Amino acid sequence: MDRSLPRAFVVLGDVGRVHGDALITAVMAPEPWNGLTDEVIYRTRGQDFHRILRQHLRTSRFADTVVVSVRRQAGWSWSTIVFVVDQRDDHSGMSLQLRRGLVTASDHGLTRVVVPVMGANYCDMSDSSLVEALGDIAGPTVRECNDARSRLREIVVVTDDTRVALELGQLLR
Questions:
Q1: Residue 108: which of 133, 140, 73, 83 has the closest Cα?
Q2: C-alpha neighbours within 13 Å on the C-beta side of residue 136
Q3: How many C-beta atoms lie closer than 10 Å to residue 47's C-beta?
């Protein structure tokens, strides 16, 4: 069966206001630190976010990804969070983290995922791993997610930085 590939696009704004089935975010373990998470998440729901992550990391100590249902709690725009965990201190590149998150979201039948990218994180990357990761969205990672079971249709990259939005928008054309 020939299925259309998921559509990837960039939104300039507040990730807390962009609706989707799931938020994909990278975290370091054992101490939860949200590497790709927009500041807005922390300002609006930070304590809940960390409490949920700590609780699930304890029960999933060696998992690469942890999928948590948050049942659209007040102030959240997603019903699920896919935490991509770098807990072996290998500091895996963003491309691998994003790939893990997208494949996990696809495996869980999610149709629209939100990927927050802070301007500061993007600007500080000397190895261009975000560019590589987002290039994968338009290429191999999306094809990997595109099997008969996959319902993944939209990948929304959200940033709060105009320059980053323009650059990423060009990349995903």
A1: 83
A2: 20
A3: 8
Tokens of 86: 């770098």
Mean pLDDT over the full length of the chain: 70
| Residue whose C-alpha is closest to residue 53's, from 87, 90, 83 | 83
**pLDDT-flagged residues of the chain (< 50):** 1-2, 34-36, 38, 124-127
Q: What is the pTM of this model?
A: 0.76
Half-sphere exposure for 126 (CA within 13 Å, toward CB): 0
Distance in angstroms (rounded) separating the CA atoms of residues 157 and 151: 18
Domains of the chain: 7-171 (3.40.220.10)
User: Strands, E, within 35-153: which ranges?
Assistant: 65-69, 78-86, 112-117
Please tell me the distance from the alpha carbon of residue 110 to that of residue 103, in angstroms, as a whole number: 10
Rounded Cα distance between 170 and 104, Å, is 26
